[in-house]
């Protein structure tokens, strides 16, 4: 069966609601199905992959390090909205350095996070077969 | 693609985010509280351009429920749930802006 | 066409489940097939067999049950995500006894299963529509 392009649309920050952690749980399960997976982080969703999260003060599980595992599962297309970052006073440097090893390029380590403009995101979204929102 | 927006543009930025990433052929269906954006109000300019191209729909049931049937912009097309189903069939991938 | 639906919110608190139900009903009336309805996040609460809404209002759980959405083997295709369900205290008989808990609350028209069922629904269906908040 031909693979489908799945997009996981993340627009909410972690911790305030369960959407972020439960969206990530779907993505990890999805890896086993070998589809063409992309994650989009738009609006407050960009905060899901901000570096330096510390949940000691709120008594909730810090699941941010789990994003580092995505590369091992061949999930390496994490699109972050440039406009959403800018509006929030963030840059690419504020994000977790998520990487994957490119098997087609001698297992060279490459960044999974791609900061993209709205125009680029529009094109990416228009190519998707299935879009899951959380 | 069919983009559904279920929140009012006064409550959330969902409609704006949708508009930021919609391509030239996709359409928007306003449902639930999202139909508030179909009414003539301060946020009408957001949808004016797309609506003039006939690319904005609103769910009739949600419009009626909220008592705004007489306020909906003339060029926004009202559909029932059967029409919602038809839009999904016709426009392919559904993107839900919540 | 084959449709699947994802519902992210519980009954009554948000309109998501109502909208999804009306959509599913219309799709069935138009001759389409509902492959699967997958309940995630608080959506798992749509499977509670203990809800008691007022008599003059719709019964969300019963509405879903009455659509009788099943697969060719006669198993329910109103699927509740097991991870989200356990977190929120939604248990079927099997999960309850496995965990030594007396009583279970999942309505028989629903079945509990893994997240893979959502992905499979996306793969196998022509269209997948998400209802959330």
State the helix count of chain A. Answer: 3
**Helix content percent band of chain B:** 25-40%
Give the averaged pLDDT of chain A, no decimals.
97
Q: What CATH architecture of chain B would you give? A: 3-Layer(aba) Sandwich
User: Biggest sheet of chain A: strands, sense, closure?
Assistant: 5 strands, parallel
Share of helical residues of chain A: 10-25%
What do we call the CATH topology of chain B? Hypothetical Protein Ychn, Chain: A
CATH topology of chain A: Hypothetical Protein Ychn, Chain: A
H-E string of chain B: EHEHEHEHE
Oligomer category: heterotrimer
Q: In angstroms, what separates the terminal alpha carbons of chain A? A: 26 Å
Range of strand content of chain A: 15-25%
Mean of residue pLDDT values of chain B: 98
Most extensive interface: B-C, 20 and 21 residues
CATH class of chain A: Alpha Beta
Would you kindly provide a written description of the structure presented here, covering whatever features stand out?
The complex is a heterotrimer of chains A (134), B (98) and C (133). Chain A has 3 helices and 7 strands. Chain A is an alpha/beta fold and 134 residues long. Chain A has one domain (5-133): DsrEFH-like (Hypothetical Protein Ychn, Chain: A, 3-Layer(aba) Sandwich), CATH 3.40.1260. In chain A, helix 1 (19-30) links the parallel strand 1 and strand 2. Chain A is globular and about 45 Å long. The model of chain A has no long low-confidence stretch (mean pLDDT 97). Chain B has one domain (2-97): 3-Layer(aba) Sandwich (Hypothetical Protein Ychn, Chain: A), CATH 3.40.1260.10. Chain B contains 4 helices and 5 strands; from the N terminus they run E-H-E-H-E-H-E-H-E. Chain B has a 5-stranded parallel β-sheet with strand order 4-3-2-1-5. The longest helix of chain B is centred in the last third of the chain and has 11 residues, at 81-91. Chain B is globular. The model of chain B has no long low-confidence stretch (mean pLDDT 98). Chain C has a single domain (2-131), classed as DsrEFH-like (Hypothetical Protein Ychn, Chain: A, 3-Layer(aba) Sandwich), CATH 3.40.1260. In chain C, 32% of the residues lie in helices and 19% in strands. Chain C has helices at 16-29, 60-67, 82-87, 93-98, 116-124, and strands at residues 2-7, 33-39, 78-81, 111-113, 127-131. The interface between B and C is medium-sized, with 20 and 21 residues.
């Amino acid at each position: 069966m031909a693979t489908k392009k799945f997009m996981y649309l993340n627009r909410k920050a972690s911790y305030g609601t369960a959407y972020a952690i439960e969206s990530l749980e779907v993505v990890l399960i999805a890896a086993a199905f070998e589809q063409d997976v992309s994650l989009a982080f738009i609006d407050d969703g960009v905060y899901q992959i901000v570096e330096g999260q510390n949940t000691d003060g709120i008594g909730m599980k810090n699941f941010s390090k789990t994003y580092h595992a995505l590369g091992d599962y061949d999930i390496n297309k994490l699109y972050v909205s440039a406009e959403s970052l800018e509006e929030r006073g963030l840059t690419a440097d504020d994000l977790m350095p998520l990487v994957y090893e490119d098997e087609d390029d001698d297992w060279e380590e490459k960044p999974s996070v791609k900061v993209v403009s709205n125009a680029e995101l529009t094109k990416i979204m228009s190519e998707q077969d299935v879009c899951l929102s959380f | 693609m069919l983009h559904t927006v279920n929140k009012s543009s006064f409550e959330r930025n969902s409609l704006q985010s949708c508009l930021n990433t919609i391509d030239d052929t996709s359409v928007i269906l306003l449902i639930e509280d999202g139909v508030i954006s179909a009414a003539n109000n301060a946020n009408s300019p957001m949808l004016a351009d797309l609506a003039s191209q006939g690319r904005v729909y609103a769910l009739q049931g949600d419009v009626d429920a909220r008592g705004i049937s007489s306020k909906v912009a003339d060029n926004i097309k009202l559909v029932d749930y059967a029409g919602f189903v038809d839009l999904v069939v016709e426009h392919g991938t559904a993107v839900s802006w919540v | 066409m084959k449709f699947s639906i994802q519902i992210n919110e519980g009954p009554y608190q948000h309109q998501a489940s109502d909208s999804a139900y009306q959509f599913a009903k219309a799709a069935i009336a138009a001759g389409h097939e509902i492959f699967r309805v997958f309940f995630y996040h608080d959506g798992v609460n749509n499977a509670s067999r203990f809800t008691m809404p007022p008599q003059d209002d719709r019964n969300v759980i019963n509405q879903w049950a009455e659509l009788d959405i099943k697969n060719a083997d006669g198993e329910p295709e109103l699927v509740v995500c097991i991870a989200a369900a356990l977190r929120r205290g939604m248990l079927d008989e099997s999960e309850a006894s496995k965990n030594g808990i007396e009583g279970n609350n999942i309505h028989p028209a629903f079945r509990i299963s893994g997240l893979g069922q959502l992905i499979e629904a996306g793969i196998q269906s022509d269209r997948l529509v998400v209802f959330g908040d």
